[in-house]
Amino acid sequence: xxxxxxxxxxxxxxxxxxxxxxxxxxxxxxAAGPWDGGDEPGSLAAPEExxxxxxxxxxxxxxxxxxxxxxxDYTTMEFVVAILMKHFHLPPAEAxxxxxxVHHKGAGVAGVYSRDVAETKVAEVTAEAxxxxxxxxxxxxxxxxxGGDDPERPAGSRGAGGGA
Length: 164
Fold this sequence. Notes:
Blueprint: E1 64-70, H1 77-88, H2 92-105, E2 107-114, H3 115-131, E3 137-142
Antiparallel strand pairs: 1-2, 1-3
Helix pairs in contact: 1-2
C-alpha cells in the first residue's frame, strides 16, 4: 500500500474545477447559500423548514382632526361667515351653510386637517376673534375612525388639510 499525501484524502473526490458542486478547498465543507437543496448554484430549491414568511407592516395614516366652531350668543353670524371664508377658504354659500349649522345645532365642522394644521387654525381664529371682541370658541377634535364628521356635508367639500 502506498501512503497518500493528498491533503483532501479524507474527502470524496471532487469533479473538475468549475463544474457543479466544485469545492475550492477539498477538505472544507461547501458554504451554505441560497441554492442549498439543489445541485447547482442557479437552483433555488430551499428546504421547507428554512422558509420564513415576513409580515409586512403597513404604515397607518396620521389621524385627522376636525376644527369645530361652537355657538355662542355674542359672536355675529357675519363674523363667523367671514372667518370661514378667510381662514378655511370656504365659498360664501358653504360658509353660510356651516354658520347656520353652528347656529341651529350648536356646533359645526369648519374643516378636517392634520393635527398641527388644525391646532394652528384654532389658535389663529381665536386670536382674531379676541381682537374683534368676539368670544368665539373653536376646538380641534379627533375625527371619528369611520371618516365621517358631518353627514350633511359632502366628502369633497371638507377642508383640504394641506395649507394654513
